[in-house]
Amino acid sequence: MHIRQVTGGLVAALAVTFSLMSGQATAAPAPAQDTAVAARVVTYDASGSAEFRSAVARGAAIWNESVNAVELVPSAAGQRANIRVLADNGWPRAQTTSLGNGTVWIGRQAVNEGHNTIRISSHELGHILGLPDIKPGPCTSLMSGSTAGTSCTNAYPNAAEKSAVEGYFGGALTRESGDAPLNTVIVD
Predict the structure, then answer these.
(1) Of the listed 51, 65, 71, 124, which one is catalytic?
(2) What is the pTM of this model?
(3) Active-site residue, 51 included
(4) What is the tens place of the pLDDT at every residue in 94-140?
(5) Residue 1, Cα to own-chain centre: how many angstroms?
(6) Nearest-angstrom CA–CA distance, 61 and 131
(7) CA angle (73, 76, 81) in 5-degree steps
(8) β-pairing verdict for 83-88 and 101-107
(9) What is the pairing mode between strands 40-48 and 83-88?
């Protein structure tokens, strides 16, 4: 599980606040070492992703390696997942219903044209994590999608993309949505 770091100053301030609320004044503790806060867990169901199941798992693993504020995990059998991943014959696309929730389609049309399945998976999961398309864009931008060309196999988000996802999911005050439009199918 990934963790997000909270500064020791925040922990000390909370300790003083709670001790004052209980009626006892105490000296503030010495600044603590960084304290960990668990990542928000977002589940995905790739059972409908057919031949792309391993690419979806790798795309999720790439996000887990890249950010700390959210962790993508396969849903348990019978559990309702935050993200449904399906395979079809169309173009890859995603529909985000809220931050961390929606449906991804891994379209065979892009795969048949030579686009990398792991990049497609990671890109579409990026939409569910709140990121919009950045088109046209270079291969170094995951969210540039197909505009980077079929030779691009980069499936990792760049620093700006990672930072945006950390901002959407990080800390106590998470946003309700990212920059990706909600309830709209984003066709890549």
Answers:
(1) 124
(2) 0.77
(3) no
(4) 999 999 999 999 999 999 999 999 999 999 999 999 999 999 999 99
(5) 14
(6) 17
(7) 65
(8) parallel
(9) parallel
Instruction: Give dist(CA 76, CA 2) in Å, integer.
Output: 19
Task: Return the beta strands (E) in 82-140 as ranges.
Answer: 83-88, 93-98, 101-107
The Cα–Cα gap between 39 and 41 comes to 6
- Provide the 10 A C-beta neighbour count for residue 157: 25
Adjacent-strand bridge partners of 86? 48, 105
- Residue ranges in the chain modelled with pLDDT below 70: 1-37, 171-188
Helix residue ranges, H only, 22-93: 53-66
Distance from C-alpha of 155 to C-alpha of 137, rounded to nearest angstrom: 14
- With tokens 């395979």, the residue in question is 87
For the chain, state the CA radius of gyration: 19
Q: Which two tokens stand for residue 17?
A: 């606040």
**Taking Cα atoms as reference points, which of 9, 44, 48 lies closest to residue 29?**
9
